[in-house]
Amino acid sequence: MKFPAKLSLQKIKSAAFTTVCGTLLVAATLPAVAQTKYTSTPKGCDVKIEGTSSLHDWEMEGSLIGGFLEFGPGVQLDPAQATVGGITGDKVPATGRVIIPVRSVHSKADHLPDVMEHLMQDALKEPQFPRIEFNLKEMAFKGPHEAGKPFNFEVTGDLSISGVTNAATFPITITQVDADTIKVSGTAPVNLPQYNITPPAPSFGLGLMKTGPDVKIIFDWSLHKKQ
Amino acid sequence: MNDIHPLQDSNRREFLKNTSLATLMAVMGGVELRAADAPASATPLTKIPPPPSVNFGVIGLNEWGREILHQLSLMSYAPVVAICDTYEHAFRKAAEEAPKAKQYKDYKELLADPNVQAVIIATPTGTHKEIVLAALAANKHVYCEAPLANTMDDAKVIAKAAKAATKVVFQPGLQERSHPQRHFLIPFIRGGALGKDVMARAQWHKHGGWRRESPNEERSTQLNWRLHQKTSTGLIGEEGIHEVDATAWFLKNRPVAVTGFSAMRLWGEDGRDVPDTIQAVYEFPHSVNFVFDATLCASFDAAYEMYYGTDSTIMVRDSKAWQFKEAGSPLQGWEVYSRKDMFYKESGIQIVANGSHQSALTAGATADAYPNTPLWYALDAFTRNVSLVGGAVKDFTDLYGDNGSAKDLADSLAALKTYPAATWQDGLDATVMAIVGNEATIKKQKIAFEKDWFEI
């Protein structure tokens, strides 16, 4: 752009101010049309895998969750509102993927934690299938939403573990942490045999421990709005 | 003596819980105090499945370098893909242990090999700094033999670089820090089994000149760097550093001063100026002194450590430990079924994971509790930590990309439950204690330690 040679600084400032105000006014009055994409942030991610056994319950923990969650145009999570903005019915237009590296989940057991980790990684065929992945297909709002509380949803998608993919449906909550950050929390039940995984049954000395076929993947997933 | 027991800490409660359990079990019929009853760190690593493979490069192929190659050859998950030495003939013997390894005469070329993930530096002490800095800059995981350096300035430079290199593992070669027997002993000792501590003592005795045979004068100078004060940290630095480190570790403290003595009793005629016999007294807080003596002139009783207390004394020798109890000292319970060995006129109770099982009374029952060498355990821990940290760094970077800061990564790595191993701070501490101890023995004087010597 070429400015007139004699255009004063005052006129330039005035023109710029008018342009900015106009843009803000349009933005405030038009519905949001852009998609909103959130990507994983390392702060505030926790994952826990809980299971049972013939001896005692067991659990493993990690803090790495990757992936994204992208809402369709117009979707707004306003903590003060009773419903999700920009949706009709309960369907929320959204896509997403959750990634959990298998080797990042560690046993916190006091005794032989490495053995438990190895059993789990071995059962999940970690070298060939290093990640647990969930690809979101449908997301339904479970309202009404109470002000100040997390939003409740039910998600359906493809859960891939150890090279086997099954449809999975489970509830999640989404909390608006601040203007740019959300936290997604949930528990995904997993039946190991459905993923061709034989529940480990290790022997310790003279004893045999049989792990149960059902485990729970419990997660708190922190995501930051992608600018 | 101060009533505060430096060996006791919060682990006492845990120890009492374990010993009470053991007492009950003994009364009920002698159920073992198994490894599972000990802290996780005491679990013999041989029971733990192998980690993903880590490709090694070994720099320095003399006697110790070849021993490292041998220990690595026992680990299917630690293939040696590259070896390096400036001396051409060193490759012949080394290749017997690592036949598939690429051979480099320049360590910089080895560091440029993308197939090498981790390096072990087993070169003369004075050359460590240059190689460590280059290796860390090349993003390699580093295991550096102890002592880290032969000057405090160089040791600090290494420690500083190691601290800054958060994406890789740096482990000084203080091998006892990874030994499961030591980790079994720590809660035992700190839990009060000694009563009030009295003193510590260690020795390293050998009959041999420390001189390595060489085909010519030039090679002799390269090989026998340990015999000259300019390039050597003496008997304390090159041999006793492990005992000095272990004592400070068990005492959970740094010494306040060291007084030394030295003499040339047998080997002085070959031109060396490093004394062949030394004694050093390290003064620790609470008036608990550690006496170390080493000689190349008399081999009687070889090497061991002693921790003396008012209730009992513990001897650590090779991979075993024994407790010698004073008459009338409290019964801890677990010793009922423990195996006892005679030393001179004293009966020592074996302290070993599973040692209180009734079967331990059978000769040889606990002989293989720790079947590997201290070096094996240290290299095993290093390999596992490299695998753990390397994997975590990759996962973090893959998942978060630009969303993850260096601090986020450091926080994530700090949460990892790594295998017991010496840290850069342990390496710096031990190196400073060894260098100053060596200086004290050479000068035959007392030197007070200053706090900032241990800081970077």
Number of beta-strand segments of chain A: 13
The largest sheet of chain A has its strands arranged as: 1-4-5-7-8-9-10-13
User: What integer is the average pLDDT of chain B?
Assistant: 86
Portion in helices of chain B: 25-40%
Number of helices of chain A: 2
Please mark out the parts of chain B with pLDDT under 50 across 5 or more consecutive residues, or reply none.
1-46
Shape label of chain A: elongated
Uncertain regions of chain A: pLDDT < 50 for 5+ in a row?
A: 1-32
Summarize model confidence as the mean pLDDT of chain A.
84
Oligomer: heterodimer
Which structural class matches the secondary elements of chain A?
Answer: mainly beta
The counted number of beta strands of chain B is 16
Order of helices and strands of chain A: HEEEEEEHEEEEEEE
Rg measurement of chain B, Å? 23 Å
Output the structural class of chain B. Answer: alpha/beta
Strand order of the largest sheet of chain B: 14-15-13-12-11-7-10-9-8-16
Kindly, what is the distance between the CA atoms of the first and last residues of chain A, rounded to a whole number of angstroms?
27 Å
Can you characterise this structure?
The complex is a heterodimer of chains A (227) and B (456). Chain A has 227 residues and is mostly beta strands. Chain A has two helices and 13 strands. In chain A, the strands form two sheets. Chain A has an eight-stranded antiparallel β-barrel. The model of chain A is unreliable at 1-32 (pLDDT under 50). In chain B, strands 14-15-13-12-11-7-10-9-8-16 form a ten-stranded mixed beta sheet, with helices on one face. Chain B has a six-stranded parallel beta sheet with strand order 3-2-1-4-5-6, with helices on both faces. In chain B, helix 6 links the parallel strand 5 and strand 6 (170-172). Chain B is globular and about 65 Å long. The interface between A and B is medium-sized, with 29 and 25 residues.
